[in-house]
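JOB MANIFEST
job_type = single_chain_structure
chain_count = 1
residues = 115
[input]
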Amino acid sequence: QVQLVESGGGLVQPGGSLRLSCAASGMFFSLYAMGWYRQAPGKQRELVAVITTTGSPKYADSVRGRFTIAGDNSKNTLYLAMNSLKPEDTAVYYCHLGRFDGNFWGRGTQVTVYS
């Protein structure tokens, strides 16, 4: 079964940086998409960034130019490098896998950007 485990969240001041990691297991398909989503309290979960096996990375308008998504196949790990963080980036960040047989989610990691 697929397992996704996020790490790297924490407390950071505005303008600071964090790198999130998603350790993945059970990915045995050549066609899939992996990405990061986030959800703030009382708000809908939203796409942050996504990569696929066949395309270039895509970013939400709110993070484009500040965040970078990348994968390391040798470690089965997905990363999200976050720079110039803003208070509105505060949310639980979730790792996601989409493939032919369904969607899979990690449990999330909290990112808090405080003034």
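[summary]
The radius of gyration is 14 Å.
The CA atoms of residues 29 and 99 lie 8 Å apart.
exit_status = 0
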